[in-house]
């Protein structure tokens, strides 16, 4: 095979390999079907009374995104009384979320990403990852975690859960006082190394809705969520690799057709 023929083949192979193994783009989307909650009660607050996480979802797309194995456990990242009101969907509803690095998310949480990472590093319980987890009631640590998370999103580190952009009308019950203890233990501006050391190979991402990978927005209004996921590469669709192989074949066929016939 001549050098003139091998160069296009090599270039096409590089393109095929790149398409098959390219890293995740910033415009990433995932389809998740809502399964339900752990049974935590609603939390009364000034923004929007809402259930505390964890919440459980199952991916609903092909090819699957390996960074969101079932079940995907999330906590609420948004309290918006509207309009439009942001709520959890009905169980069985599939939602298309935009996936963002927490520090770059179109959310108030981005400003306090380091504090949120420290909260996860110090207090996140991996038992919450399992859909078999059931809340023990109004004193459950997951409720305290959710309250502390909401406070960090809207007010940053605070020593008073009864004032600010997010506040509780009553902060004297056990889950609220434990949330305040969590907040008091955090560093002034947040130390993300608590998360990276405890959960090496994972990252925190914001799941933002409504979103649409084909343009426009969904009509449903769903609360944004936060979750941990593996930072490993997501397999590209099989079509990307097949497309690259097809390019190789077409280039080779074209070059062979144009090869001069010896005199």
Describe the structure.
It is a single chain. With 263 residues, the chain is an alpha+beta fold. The protein has one domain (23-235). The protein has helices at 3-21, 113-123, 141-155, 174-184, 193-198, 238-258, and strands at 28-37, 42-43, 50-51, 55-59, 72-76, 94-101, 202-208, 225-230. A 6-stranded antiparallel β-barrel has the order 1-4-5-8-7-6. Strands 2-3 form a two-stranded antiparallel sheet. α3 crosses α4. It is globular and about 45 Å long. The model is unreliable at 1-26 and 235-259 (pLDDT under 50).
Euclidean distance between termini CA atoms: 19 Å
Tell me the number of strands.
8
Per DSSP, the total helix count is 6
Low-confidence stretches: 1-26, 235-259
What's the order of the H and E elements?
Answer: HEEEEEEHHHHEEH
What is the rounded Rg?
24 Å
Summarize the structure.
This is Thioester domain-containing protein. The protein has helices at 3-21, 113-123, 141-155, 174-184, 193-198, 238-258; strands spanning 28-37, 42-43, 50-51, 55-59, 72-76, 94-101, 202-208, 225-230. The protein is an alpha+beta fold.
Task: Summarize this structure as a short list of keywords or feature phrases.
263 residues, alpha+beta, six-stranded antiparallel beta barrel, 32% helix, disordered N terminus, Thioester domain-containing protein, transmembrane helix, transmembrane, membrane
